[in-house]
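Q: My labmate handed me this sequence with no annotations at all. I'd like to see what the chain might look like in three dimensions before we decide whether it's worth expressing. Could you predict it?
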Amino acid sequence: MSVLKFKNYIVKEISYQKNSKFNKANKQVTLKPSFYESDEIQDGFILVDLKVSIGSLESTKLPFEATVALQGKFEYVPEDDKDDFGLTTFIKQNAVAILYPYVRSIISNVTMASNEYPGFLLPTINVSEELKKQK
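A: Here is what I predict for the chain of 135 residues:
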């Protein structure tokens, strides 16, 4: 059995805005994502929110700003936690890692749908490490 069971996710926010200040002469565009995570226990389930934003509306070097926020629903099975890692470890590491590919896909689809720039694919990364760095 699995210690953390992924039940479902919902999209809480999708936004894309073209940056009118973008200078198209910039051939090199570097988009560094920022991350936000929160969690709560509700009706016996763990709800984990993961929000990822890229781009800016202020920089002349970035063509757009995009944000995706998801909420994942998980069930923790403590009797299957044989190594006694605990709920917090599974939320901070596993739950965000499960949600991140969905965020990557949505960001890629939204940026590609702009029909002005190529779709942007977020890099495969250790999301829990990135969250630690940003805190």
